[in-house]
Amino acid sequence: MTESSTDLTTHTGFKFHVRPVQPEDEAALGRFFEQVTPEDLRFRFLSSQKRVGHDQLLAMTRVDHRRTESFLAIAGNGGPIIASAMLACDENLDVGEVAISVSADHRNMGLGWELLGHITRYAEAKGVRLLQSLESRSNHSAIQLEKEFGFTTQSYPDDPALVMVQKILRPSL
Questions:
Q1: Which residues of 116-133 are buried (b: 16+ CB within 10 A; e: fewer)?
Q2: Phi, then psi, of 156 in degrees rounded to 5
Q3: End-to-end Cα distance, the chain
Q4: What is the CA 112 to chain-centroid distance, rounded?
Q5: Backbone CA torsion sign across 141, 30, 60, 12
Q6: Whether the Cβ atoms of residue 106 and residue 56 lie closer than 8 Å to each other
Q7: Are 71 and 115 in contact (CB under 8 A)?
Q8: Which of these, 123, 126, 125, lies nearest to 166 by C-alpha position?
Q9: Are the C-beta atoms of 86 and 68 separated by less than 8 Å?
């Protein structure tokens, strides 16, 4: 299986560390989401919430590490959280949903691309067949990034404001 903790470098030369979340990361993850733009918060949670609440932080920091993995991108040696990425799989580890957030002051540096690559490699090593991401149609930058990464788009049933973005990692048997 691919390493869940690793150092990554973006196309811009920015270096950061990625590791799985731990329960003690709750306060730091809360501070991270305070550094995400309101628009990005809306795109990440597909709601108009103004802040990430305690229950949501608990759900993101107390994951089972089998079906769900939440990764944190850390700046420098023990610096602040600069991005968060989650892979949440179904019971059979067949389909995994991806969600990524990057702090406002670290956007457009390639973190989203590197994190999507990290999650893809991690999911492939787990045997996940299909990666999906539910996106707001107005989240053009995320949809474009995912398309460049080989994801395809389709309309989301019952909600014209959303689009399903997905990538087959391995064909069905």
A1: bebbbebbbebebbbbeb
A2: -95, 125
A3: 21
A4: 8
A5: positive
A6: no
A7: yes
A8: 123
A9: yes
Give per-residue pLDDT as tens, 86-129: 999 999 999 999 999 998 888 889 999 999 999 999 999 999 99
**C-alpha 67, offset from chain centre:** 14
Q: Which amino acid is at 121?
A: R
Sign of torsion over alpha carbons 91, 96, 97, 98: positive
Contacting residues for 84 by C-beta, under 8 A, at least 6 apart: 21, 29, 32, 33, 60, 70, 71, 72, 73, 100, 101
**How does residue 1 score in pLDDT terms, banded at 50, 70 and 90?**
very low
HEC string for the chain: CCCCCEEEECCCCCEEEEEECCHHHHHHHHHHHHCCCHHHHHHHHCCCCCCCCHHHHHHHHCCCCCCEEEEEEEECCCCCEEEEEEEEECCCCCEEEEEEEECHHHCCCCHHHHHHHHHHHHHHHHCCCEEEEEEECCCHHHHHHHHHCCCEEEECCCCCCEEEEEEECCCCC
How far out from the chain centre does Cα 83 lie? 8
